[in-house]
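Exercise 7. Given the components listed, write out the predicted structure of the assembled complex. Treat all entries as one system.
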Amino acid sequence: MTGEFDLIARHFRRAQDARAPGVVLAGGDDCALLAPTPGMQLAISTDTLVEGVHFPRDTPPADLGWKALAVNLSDLAAMGATPRGCVLALTLPLVDDAWVATFAEGFLALADAAHCPLVGGDTTSGPLSITVTVFGEVPAGEALRRAGARAGDLVCVSGTPGDAALGLERWLAGNHDRHDPAILRLLRPVPRLALGVELRGVATACIDVSDGLLGDLAHIVAESSRATGLSLGAELQLAALPRSPSLAALSDEAALEHQLAGGDDYELCFTVPVQALAALRVAAASAQVPVAVIGRITDDGRIRCLGTDGCEWQPRRRGWDHFANEE
Amino acid sequence: MTGEFDLIARHFRRAQDARAPGVVLAGGDDCALLAPTPGMQLAISTDTLVEGVHFPRDTPPADLGWKALAVNLSDLAAMGATPRGCVLALTLPLVDDAWVATFAEGFLALADAAHCPLVGGDTTSGPLSITVTVFGEVPAGEALRRAGARAGDLVCVSGTPGDAALGLERWLAGNHDRHDPAILRLLRPVPRLALGVELRGVATACIDVSDGLLGDLAHIVAESSRATGLSLGAELQLAALPRSPSLAALSDEAALEHQLAGGDDYELCFTVPVQALAALRVAAASAQVPVAVIGRITDDGRIRCLGTDGCEWQPRRRGWDHFANEE
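Answer.
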């Protein structure tokens, strides 16, 4: 018929997605159809990116396509789930075929890399925003929850948090060099899917670091406290925080702010019992992702960051929240 | 922590949703977890409503909450799927607790009526838009597809299409009387879930009428033509079109325009083989939904509307499309 239907069909619908494992029907009908794998549970996450809120207005559309899927896949990674498919709801101010083609290029590049076929979508006119919903599978009872941390568990993080926040600063300052590792981390975050799968049966709790390490760790502590009825906390050793070469140019204070409160890294923060440390090394090696032990879960109801002198360090902020300023 | 998380927890998270059949985990983690029913396929649909595009700016938030879910459930109905859960991505210009509370009231009222628990969500700041993704289940191989119509099949429709378009006209003209049946149809469409389930094994093809009867029937014809390699068409008898009392005040011409090209009714348009007519009567009676036979599928590649005089009638428009004006 007309534009809306053609827009998705032209740029996103591909024969191979309809033939992906478990996909019964992709596109061209009222619903997509997936065939669940026996014994698996379905993990679902949805996230919206709004222009000017979640990404700068001059973000290249291919990077935006990649990132819109990446932030959702990161939620699957944090549950230990394997991607099975996704749907895309794209709201655009006007039909711009070149823009959509480039957006689709980035989106589908990650969809292919993560074996996450796009099975459905909706295109509407309005201010630019992108909502992706992803579906993954995890063996029944093996999902990595936020609520499973216990006092004494080690707190761990993958990769080097803080890079994306530095990348955003540079981007906003006019540096659009895609070869800058910090900027690349901002534009093309890589969801830690392989690590999430390897952490099944190893980690007691897991979350992805989207709003800053301290803020996201606080969710693990809060949900685990709720689940146990205890007042859990966490103690981080600042010297143990992995720091990328990109952050070396900053003062120690500024680097720590990025590492502890910078968002958009999409690393995994998780807890493991002390006796699982060897299994963790195996998991990290299998997933080929660097993992650092940065502290432990406590039972004193506080989240503290300790310097090498043993003194407590207070970050200026703990992360961000879209509506925090209005409240 | 802060506003975003509280907003969903405060207004949408309810203990009973976490205990609904098949729900393993609802809210408070990176993903929701559902337990698929063995032997069932998963039907997925996503739809976005944007202020000023899909609904007038003065739409009451409770009705908006209802409708955002209804348009998605209607896609499940059109596949013959039974709802199992949904996620909500809500973008709001600012935190307005009273607004969200009222929106949630309408949304959850339909979620309860349709046994479709809200299992996850995302709240962001930005221009008002609402994306809902629904999950349903349908026995493997029994989903109602658009592509199954064959020449000679009867074309059917549920209810009385055209009412919602009349309701929109009245609303835009300043009539906000909720007791007006046409306006109620606009504000509170009822997805035909029971009928969809009853049509499994009876209908050969099915679609929900969101963009106007003729335009949506054209999708059945197009997808069925593609599937068969034939050039199918359809012939509708105007006298057979069900017309509600609300449309009686209009001229015959205007009423037909509403019936054939008015959107937002969320009735089902479907095809059945002639020999399934008795089974159709049973299905409609079981679902307690009026169903009318309005024409048949042809093999001449055209969609025609015939008056009582046998002459062809041309509607001014066939439906709408969000981007049609820009192309």
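Discussion: The longest helix of chain A spans residues 61-79. The CA atoms of residues 212 and 262 of chain A lie 5 Å apart.
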